[in-house]
Design goal:
Blueprint lengths: L1 E5 L4 H12 L3 E6 L13 E4 L5 H10 L3 E6 L6 H6 L1 H21 L4 E7 L10 E2 L10 H19 L3 E7 L1 E3 L17 H9 L6 E4 L11 E2 L1 E3 H13 L1 H8 L3 E6 L5 E2 H12 L5 E4 L10 E2 L2 H7 L7 H19 L3
Parallel strand pairs: 1-2, 1-4, 2-3, 4-5, 5-7, 6-15, 7-12, 8-11, 9-14
Antiparallel strand pairs: 10-13
Length: 334
């Protein structure tokens, strides 16, 4: 089938497009290239433009009437930036997404697979969260994701829109062939920062927050290999109608993670094991909008979606290190 992938030039979007191709599907990429590099699109069907451009969406569907589903990944995603620029985050992540969803319904293309975030969850005692756990999104970025979850749920109840909402935990790593990966010159996420410190591009890796109520005081996350995450999207696209029939609802929310919690210090230890040497580390207070963290209860992903992760944190770290050595060849900068 053909699948529209908004944000398909990004890190997760391009990896998912590749996974779709590997499963015999055809991704149609829509991306503004605000952040995602053109190189990640490769030779895929590509439209450069805005997700809120209704005329462009109409043209895409006219030229590809066999598109059966939209994976909506296009979003601003940097937590500290969202604290500094809340208007831009609500405009791009909320207002423009609403235009996209409404136009998809008008065009008779109602299936939407939405990229949400585990950063919505409140801190719970054992840090394991399922889809019904309490929410307390700590940043404008996370709040935009929660607003869109509510909007999708309401629109699905009132219109022909149908939605599967995937709450991502923490994607790391690269695709198996090292054709794409983290592209920011200085990535804000933890593994990208570790790779930079390991390769001498930073003096040290900074642990932000060492007094959290976790087993070692550092934040806890569920680190999922980006290739596993991409495969979850393929499964969701292929089983879209079955999943909604099974839950007997026009929309549903599913955690996508490994089911294991890893602290930042534990991640550093795993990284050093794979890397083969120590990485210089320093400590700092939490950044604005940072959360203590959580890890996924993945029962629903296994039982309803029919998917579970298969790659390890060591696999992800190894691919991230390999990508760090290759990305200059792909992107033109290290």
């Amino acid at each position: 089938m053909k699948v529209l992938v908004t944000g398909g030039a990004g890190y997760i979007g391009s990896t998912t497009a590749k996974a779709l191709e590997g499963a015999g599907h055809v991704p149609v990429v829509l991306d503004s290239l605000l952040t995602g590099p053109r190189a990640f699109v490769k030779d895929r069907i590509f439209y450069e433009g805005d997700i809120a451009d209704r005329d462009l969406l109409t043209r895409i569907m006219q030229e590809h009437p066999d598109i059966e589903c939209t994976i909506h990944m296009a979003a601003r995603i940097v937590v500290p930036e969202s604290v500094e620029q809340p208007y831009e985050y609500y405009r791009d992540n909320v207002s423009k997404s609403l235009e996209l969803f409404d136009q998809l319904v008008r065009l008779g293309k109602p299936r939407v697979l939405f990229s949400s975030s585990a950063s919505l969850y409140a801190t719970v005692e054992d840090f394991e969260v399922d889809e019904s756990s309490p929410l307390d999104p700590p940043s404008p970025y996370a709040r935009t994701k929660r607003v869109m979850e509510m909007a999708l749920t309401d629109m699905a109840a009132a219109t022909d829109l149908r939605a599967i909402i995937l709450r991502y935990f923490n994607p790391i790593g690269s695709d198996p062939d090292l054709e794409s990966g983290i592209y920011a010159r200085e990535p804000s996420h933890v593994l990208g920062q570790l790779v930079m410190a390991a390769q001498g591009q930073k003096d040290a890796f900074t642990i932000t927050g060492v007094e959290h109520p976790t087993r070692d005081g550092t934040g806890i996350r569920d680190y999922i290999h980006v290739w596993d995450l991409a495969q979850a999207h393929v499964t969701a696209v292929e089983s879209f109608d079955r999943v909604l029939r099974q839950v007997d609802a026009p929309s549903t929310i599913i955690n996508v993670g490994t089911g294991s919690g890893v602290t930042v210090r534990e991640l550093v230890a795993s990284f050093e094991k794979v890397f083969g040497k120590q990485v210089p580390v320093q400590e700092a207070p939490p950044r604005p909008g940072d959360a203590v963290g959580a890890f996924a209860n993945v029962d629903k992903a296994r039982d309803v979606l029919g998917w579970s992760s298969s790659l390890t944190i060591d696999d992800a770290i190894g691919s991230a290190l390999e990508w760090g050595g290759k990305r200059k060849d792909v992107l033109g900068y290290a």
